[in-house]
Amino acid sequence: MRKRTKLISFIAVSALIAGACGNRADDEESDNTSAPATEAAPADTTDASGTEAQTDDTPTTDAPTTDAPTTTVGVSDPGVTDDTIKIGGSVTLSGPTGSIGEEVVGAATAYFDLVNGQGGINGRMIEFITYDDRADSGQYLANVKKLVEEDEVIALVTGFGDAGVEYISSQEIPTITFGVSPVTFQSKYPTIYPMVGNALLWTQETIAGLDDQGVIEEGMKVGIIYDDALIDIAPYVPAITESWENVGAEVVSADVMTLATGNCDPLVLKMKDLDVDYWDFQTSAWFLCVQAADRQGWEPNIGWGGWPASVPLTATVAGPLVEGVWAGSNGDQPTGAPRGFTDFTQEYIDAVTAYDPELAVPMRLESPAMLGYWSGAKLIVAGLEAQGDVVTKAGLNDWIQNVENFEVGVTPPVISMAPDCKTGSEVIWIAQWVWDETEEIATREAGPYFTSPQKDQFGGECFLTIISDEILG
Fold it and tell me: Residue 312's domain spans which residues?
């Protein structure tokens, strides 16, 4: 292995991926007026085998499939006036994790601004109230309570919101969140809607992508490192292990590795001693292990990577050490790849550029956080538009929970958000990071989308909710 340069801004970078949403609030509030969105229109996806499909650049007015009725009589819930709809957000906007929190709020705000610029939602403007939670779960919960009880918002946008699920569920408030861990996919929290991805499914799809690339070998030794703190992946570890074993791999080690652990040298020595072929990253602290491996002049025989390595900004800050790491994405690149550039791609770029030009660069535009929360904002707006003059939490939840194959344009469709079948958009593509020494950025080229060929073995189309319910009770 050729010698690589040292990891720069290490702790901050590790926190960046973790901070696609931390949780704590701040007294500073940012109001963003925004409203009705253009009808979410299709951009064709690939089929389950990962084959690319043709796309249509022309927006359509096809509505998502839903049996939910439109509210026509009654009184709107607090937070909705004749000319305003309040939506709240609690996301990490400061500290080492703030950069990705900026992407979360930036994407949602850009879409809400776009909608407001087009006249609002049935004549009402969106008022987006956000608080900084600084990655503190206690402050996050305080933020959410303030937004619900004092600001009286009709819906929420949150980051990694596991700490608030009980309260949010008790208030029956529609909530867009990141996902990843099993809690947000449970049926017992029916008003929480995970938009970006799930650790278990993303791993199975990465395995499918690696198999397509010829990386998977019978009997290959796999080591797993996982977080059990900031993002608790521990409940999924047995299923992740089973997913690897289903393709003929042998999982020889599964170890906890968090940012608090700090030193990954002992784990690198362990992986080296076990002669690991592939190192599966299930933790935001994966950079610590890449750095330790570089110091010790070691790499796994076949490769390494995982969903935490998916954020382009983090990969770029990591520098040359990111070369060759496998990572994925839940949506299209700003070039349109892999599905093709459409009017919806341009709409996304233009809206983000108008809101914050610093976010309108490739490494931010293809961030899973930005893509997921742009999609989440579209989902909320479409549900609000469907309510007509009378807007209620119950009506919005009913619409979202009955939606099927909701098109957002920049990611594959949101398949289902039913309480017993939370899937999100589900599919991803994967690629290896390449370090551009001239531009000093990490880049990658999108391949086809993959779904999990293991879904039937884990419970079928709705297995994420099924297995999350089984694991957590």
Answer: 201-332+428-472
